[in-house]
Amino acid sequence: MTTRTPDAEPLLTPAEVATMFRVDPKTVTRWAKAGKLTSIRTLGGHRRYREAEVRALLKGVPSIGGDM
């Protein structure tokens, strides 16, 4: 179990992001490798994505990484 502070930003798994964009989770991983989406690595080496950034991309807000 992880301990989170109240101000910790929610993180999403590749599967959760993929569901939001209606793509395969491997596509989300490719986006992260290409720099189009920022990923955070867990201690186990798994990728997690900031919910705020993902929601901004869904709304069409341009990111530093450019267009998808």
Can you put this structure into words, describing what you see?
InterPro entries: BldC-like, DNA-bd_dom_put_sf, HTH_17, MerR-type_HTH_dom, SinI_DNA-bd. This is Developmental transcriptional regulator BldC. Residues 11-58 form the HTH merR-type domain. With 68 residues, the chain is α+β, with helices and mostly antiparallel strands. Helix content is 37%, strand content 13%. It has one domain (11-58): Multidrug-efflux Transporter Regulator, Chain: A, Domain 2 (Orthogonal Bundle), CATH 1.10.1660.10. It has helices at 14-21, 25-33, 51-58, and strands at residues 11-12, 39-41, 47-50. Strands 1-3-2 form a 3-stranded antiparallel sheet. The mean pLDDT is 85.
Task: Outline the secondary-structure elements.
Blueprint: E1 11-12, H1 14-21, H2 25-33, E2 39-41, E3 47-50, H3 51-58
Antiparallel strand pairs: 1-3, 2-3
